Each structure stands twice: as C-alpha cells, then as structure tokens.
Amino acid sequence: MRRVTAWAPGRVNLIGEHTDHTDGLALPMALDVGVRLEGEVGGDRVQLRSADAPVPVDIPADGSSAPSDGWGRYVAAVAAELHALGRPPVGVVGTVSSTLPQGIGLSSSAALEVAVAVALLRAADRALPAVEVVRACRRAEHAAVGVPSGVLDQAASVLSRSGAALLLDCADLSHEDVALPDGIAVLIIDSGVTRQLEGSGYATRTRELGASLHVLDGRRPADVAVAELAALTAGMDDVPARRLRHVVTENDRVRATVAAFAAADLGTVATLFADSHASLRDDFEVTVPQTDRLVDLLKDNGALASRMTGGGFGGAVIGLVHADEADAVAEATLSAYGRAYPDLRARTVLTRPGAGAAEQAADVLTP
Question: Is residue 258 part of a domain?
C-alpha cells in the first residue's frame, strides 16, 4: 500500500491578540513542534489512532458523519470541507502523534487540522492553494466545536516560513516574512492553567466586540486610527468600548512591532509587549492572575519583553530572550512561579521561527 506522511506545526503569536476575528493584523510564527500523521492509503474511511487520545477515529473519508465529541470532530470536519472542494473520498489508516503541548494556546487543534488536510490531499493526489486550505481548516474548526475563532491559527501553521515570523492580514491572508533580530529566541512558558476555548469566555468576548463595530461604518478595526477612539466610543457602554479599544490599539501595536524588529529596537518591542498585555488584562479581560504573574516574573528574571499569548483564560506567556541566556531566564522564572503557585505545573518551550506546512508540502499546498 502507498503511505502518506504529513506534519503541521503549532504556532505562537508574538503580538496581535484577538484581532483575527475582525480581519485584523497579527504577527505569529510557526514552532518547531507540531502534529504528525502517518498512514496507508486505501478504502473509503479515515481510521486514526493517537497515543494521546484513548478513543480512535473511524469516519467516512468524505466526512459525512462525525463523532459527537473528541478529536474525531476535527478530523471529520476537515474531511468534509475538502470533499466540498472536490477531494475524492480516498481513505487513510494511520496514527497521529504530537510534540505540541495542548491547552496552552499554541494551536494544537489547528495543527491537527492542517496535518489531516495535508495527509488527505496526498492520499487523493489532489493539490489545493495553500490559502484555500487555510480557510477550509478554519471552517472545519467552526463546524467541529462552534467557537467563532479567527483564521490566525491555521494561517500561521500553513503559511509561516522557517526563520521568520509572519505578518498576516487576516482579511485577505496577504502576508510577509518578518525577521527577528539576531541572537533572539522565544521562550514560551505554560502557566499550568489549562484553557479550552469551548468552555472559556472567548465567544462572549467576540459578541461584546461585535456590539461595538456599528460605530465604524463598515470599516474594520485595523483601519481605524487610535486617535479616533475617543470620539467613536463616546456614549458607548463601557464593556464594548473597552473591547473595541483593545482591538484598535492592538492592530496599531502589530505595525509598530514590525517596524521595531526591523530597526532591532528591542526597547520599543518591550514597551509594545507590555502595552499589549495590559490591554488584554484591562480592556479585553482575558488574562488570569497566573499569566499576569508569569509576565512580571519573566521581566524580573531577564526577558527582554514579555506578554500573554493565545486566546487567554489561562494558557501561556512568551518572553523574548537572548538565546544564550534562555535557560537561565527559564529556570529563574519557573522557580519563582513554583513558589507562588506550588500546585501548578509550568512547562517551557524554547523556539525559533519554524517552517509552515506549505513550505514542507509544496506538492499539495500550492501558492
């Protein structure tokens, strides 16, 4: 039998949080950890096992039926979206493995979706434009769990290139590579507070933000100047006003961060990261005390810049560090955090920008 393999990375967002579901700007990068699918082609069913999940997946290759819960929902939703795009219902029998920590905001579900998409396309000898696969995987996530998430996770997993962050415009998926300064690594620390978007306030925040958008007269927040906010939010209820303020200012911070990286101005990057975290804490209200504490501890122990990353409500924080100091920064931060929260198990991931799925699967993810 013919074999297929597929790999898709997780991602971390350097800045640009909660901007994607209003078609805004973000600066993610792919990780060097992710999800791998290996299997044999044949039949008309997708049958997958994973050491990380007790229940295997067994669905029609066209995704026409799906389990009511568990990871099989994602697999079935991806298969259904690709079938709608013309993929013949060719089956795969195989295994899924992951080196990506789950539940900390590094997009394990998007990496699974992209790996499944690449494997199913290879099994059927079918190629699709990379951006079309990004959109299909986003639709699959919506169908699988009903969370109104944006497109950032899937886009970063597919479109990122090795050695660079990805300046992404979520409106049209236009993107460009952004180099990090030499000698800088990204330290990701899991707070130990597990997050699941299905059970968090993510959908609530999306609705609250939506209640403010009528004042923009059809513009997206990314096209609104920060100086306009006071007039736009005058008379608006406090909660939607703060949600809008976060998204408008966060888009502005993405642009400023790209410029600061280009100038190797890490002092400005530090200020922008701090302002982003404060906005996520005070205006969008998605941090928790543990992530707030970790951000402070990273700064106290030598990180050049730090902030919460991901959807919030737990999960991870990131610190930009000198690569040769990363281990010392991590050890000191974890030690102090353990004293503050002895019942939580924090974990670290040290990474540089990795390759997205399209860079590795050019046979099926075309420009």
Answer: yes
